[in-house]
Fold these 2 entries.
Entry 1:
Amino acid sequence: MATDSTPGPLHVDTVVVSAGRPGRAPGSSVNVPVELTSTYAADGAVNYARVGNPTWNAFESALGDLEGGSALVHASGMGAISAALSLVAPGGTVVAPDQTYNGTGDLLIAFEQAGGSVVRVHAGDTEGFVAALDGADLLWLESPTNPLMDVTDLETVLARSRELGVTSVVDNTLPTPLLSQPLGLGADVVVHSVTKYLSGHSDVVLGATVVADTERGRALGERLRRHRTLHGAIAGPLEVYLALRGLRTLSVRFERACANAAVLAERLAGHPAVARVRYPGSGAMLAIDVAGDAAAAERLCAATRVWLHSTSLGGVESQLERRRRHPSESAAVPESLVRLSVGIEHVDDLWSDLEQALEAV
Ligand code: PLP
C-alpha cells in the first residue's frame, strides 16, 4: 500500500507515522480497515485469507519501509523464527550465539535432535563467528542477546557471512529498526517478535520476517511466504490492525523508554543490592544480577508496585522478571539475573519503585 509520493527520503520518525496508509483519494479512510474475511470472490489477486489480507499488506508495507525491505507478518515471533529456520535444510549447520532468546534456543536444540548441527559462539566473539562461518548453512544473530544483553559486531560478522554465501538471519526485536537495520549491513532476513516494541502495548502476539529487496532477498521471501501459507501460522487481521496502530507511536515510545533505561542503568549501578548491571549502552532493555540468590531476585520482582512482574517486554509499561524461573532459560544466565523492560512511565517513579523493592533483596 503505497504512501503518496513525497519529496526526498523521510526520517524514520515520519515513516512510522506515514507508511502503509491508504492512498489519499477524496473521502478515503486515514487507516486501513480490519478486513474480516476467510475468502475472496474468484479471480482477484488473492483467493483465500491464509494467503493474504489487505490489513496484513498495510502493516507489512510499513515494517518493510522501516527495515528497508519487504515484510511478512506471522502469527507470533516464534512463527517468524520457525519460518526463518526452515531456510536451513535438515542436517545442515547453523552458527548462533551461545545464548539467545530461549524460544530460539529450544528450536535450535530441536534442530540438533533432528540431525542438524549448531555451532555456538559467544555473542561478542567476532573472530569466533568469522571462523565458524566456513562451511555453515545459516547464521543466526541476536544483538543484544536476550537476556544477557551481549552485543555482536553485526557489520563484520554479516560481511563475512555474505562473502561466504551463508544465509543470515537477525532477530531485531530488541533494538527495533530505530537502532539497527541489519538488511543494510547485508543480512538476508530480519525477524521480529511484533508482540514487543513494534506493537508496544502488550495486547497482541505477532511476528514478522523481512527480506531485502534484491533478487536473493525476493527468493528467500518467497520461501518464507510459502512456509507461512503451508504451515498455516497466520495472523488475525484485528491483531495486525492493532500492531499497526501501535507502530504509529514507536518512535516516541522508544525514545522515552530508551532515555529512561539509560538513567536507570546508571542509578542501578550505584546500588549496593545490585552486583552487576547489563546494559548495552542503548535500547530500553537491561538486566541486573541481584546481589543475592534466586530467592532474593524473586523477592525483588514480587515487591514492585509500578513495575509489572511478568514475562515479555517492549510494552509501554515497565516489566521485570527473573529469567531462570523458566526451566528452558540458558544455564549461562545467572540464577539471580532480573531482566528489566523499561517502559515510558516517569523515570523517577520507576526508580523509587525499584529502590523500595530492592530493600526486599
Ligand atoms: N525474539 C525475541 C528476542 C523475544 O524476546 C521473543 C519473545 O520474548 C521472541 C522472539 C518470540 O516472540 P513471540 O513471543 O511473539 O512468539
Entry 2:
Amino acid sequence: MAHLPISSIRVGKIDDVQELIKSKPNTVPERFIREANERGVLVSHKTHLHHHIPVVDLSKLSKPHTDDDFLFEILKLSQACEDWGFFQVINHGIEVGVVEDIEKVAKEFFEMPLEEKKKYPMEPGTVQGYGQAFIFSEDQKLDWCNMFALGVHPPSIRNPKLWPSKPARFSENLEGYSKEIRKLCKRLLKYIAISLDLKEERFEEMFGEAVQAVRMNYYPPCSRPDLVMGLSPHSDGSALTVLQQSKNSRVGLQILKDNTWVPVLPLPNALVINIGDTIEVLTNGKYKSVEHRAVTNRERERLTIVTFYAPNYEVKIEPMGELVDDETNPCKYRSYNHGDYSYHYVSNKLQGKKSLDFAKILN
Ligand code: OGA
Ligand code: NI
C-alpha cells in the first residue's frame, strides 16, 4: 500500500480508546467530540423495519443459470447494487469454523496489552498496522475505534514486520480466512458481471492479480455514544468490501439511504458486502458506492473484520464501454490508474464520498 512522507505529518496525541476507557470510563476527551451535525445518534431499529438492506442467498446463485431461483437472485443482486450499494450474503459457503477462528484471534489481538500491540504501529501517513488511520492533522477529530490493518495479497504489499507473532494462530487464521474471502469476491464479481449483462469473467480478466487488504476495527463501548463517531462517514476505495461483524454484534454500521442513516442489522452467519468506488466508476455510476459510518453503544464493544478487494495497482480504470452511451448515458468518470486512486484515497481523511471527486468529470 502507498506511503506518504512521514516527517511532514503532525497528528498530535492520539489516545488509544481501549486504554482511555480503562482509566476514565466516563470521560470523552474533546478530540473525540463531534460537532452537533456530525454526531452518530443510533436510530431505533423499529423505525426501519420496512427499510432493510437486501439479503442475497448465494446457494440460489449456485444453481444452473437457467433456473428461476438463479434468475430471481441475480435480479435481487442487481437491484441491491443499484439502489443500496449494500447487501448481506447468506449461504456463502465459508465454513463457520473459518469465520469463528478469525474473530477469535482478532479479539485476542485487541485484548492484548498496549505494549504488545505497539510492536506493530501504524505510522502517521501509512495505513497498515495498529492505530488510527486517515489522521493528517493535529486538530482532526478522532474516531472511537482502534484499528489493525494489513496488506494481504499480492505478497508484495505485505509488511511482514506488522504480522503479529501473538496470538499464536493469528497469521495462520488470517491466511485461511483471506483465501476464502478471495474466492467469495471472485464469485461475487462473476454474479455482478452477469447482472450487468457482461460476460462472467469481465472483472476477473480486467483486475489482474487483485489487491486484498484487511482491517480489523474494534469499537470499545462509549459512555456517550451520542457525542462520538465510531468510524467517520466514507465510501470504500475498493471494488468490493466484505464485512464480518462479531457474533452477537450490536447494530453499529449505518448506511446513507435517501438522506437517512439506515442501520445494518447483523444476521447470523451472514457477511455484509458493499460496492466500492471502483465498481461505481466501472459501471459509470449504475452500481453505487454508498456512504457509510459506524456508531458505538454504551454497553458492549463491537469488532468488525473488513476485507477490501480491488484491482491490481497497474490496472487502468474507466467506465466500461458497455455501460456508456454518448447520447443517453455519457461518461461520468475519467480514466486513471488504480494505484493512483488508491494513493489518493489513503492520503486524505475520510469524508463521505469526497475521494471520488478524483475521478468525476465535472460539467
Ligand atoms: C470500513 C467500514 C464499518 C464497520 O472499515 O471501511 O466501513 O462497521 N467499517 O466497522
Ligand atoms: Ni467502509
